[in-house]
Prior knowledge:
Elements: E1 3-5, E2 25-29, E3 35-36, E4 51-55, E5 59-68, E6 86-92, E7 97-103, E8 114-124, E9 130-138
Parallel strand pairs: 1-9, 7-9
Antiparallel strand pairs: 2-3, 2-4, 5-6, 5-8, 6-7, 8-9
Amino acid sequence: MATRLIDESLFAGGEFGDGDPPRLVGARCSACGTVVFPRQDSCPRCPDGAMSARVLPVSGRVWSWTLQAFPPKPPYRPPAGGHRAYHVGYVDLGEVLVEARLAVPRAQIRIGLPVRLTTVPAYRDEDGTDVLTFGFRAELDGER
């Protein structure tokens, strides 16, 4: 089955499908060091710096989370069969907090949980292509 990433600009260059998820890429301000995700052209904290690409770590910790029980606003596309609740949260990657889907069972999810970047299904295109977005799963022992 064919797959593609939801938005190539969210990810660092490189091959997709080699077994490892693609790396997220944000931006870092040359003046104050602020890191943002997703990338943007100007710093949210100062007017002086240039923003350059910054590949983000693959591991972090759940900073906060909730259950997304209702369908988000567009451009969200519900899966076949309708919306199903899922976990979403902020993941602390050290330099930046990233909002993401959390592919973690309710019984395991907690603030401070070590997590690792993965891809999760976002929706299926009209042509049958599975469109993937980024998410985080519980980190396994020895992965850090």
